[in-house]
Amino acid sequence: MSHQSDMTAPRAIGLPDARTLSYAEYGGPAGAPILFFHGFPASHKEAALWHEAAVRHSARLIAPDRPGIGLSSYHSGRRFLHWPSDVAHLTRQLRIDACHILATAGGSPYALACLHEFRRDSSAGEEPSTNLTVRIKGTAIVSGIYPLSLPGPGPSGIQLSTRIALWIVGHIWFLIVPLLEWFMGTPARQNPQLFMSRMMREAESRPIVDKMCLADKAYGSGFIESTKHVFARDARGAAYEAGLMGRPWGFELDDIDAGGVSIWQGGFDAACPVAMARRAHGHLKGSILKVFEYEGHLSLPARRQDEILKAMIYG
Question: What CATH fold (topology level) applies to the domain 6-157+249-314?
Answer without folding.
Answer: Rossmann fold (3.40.50)
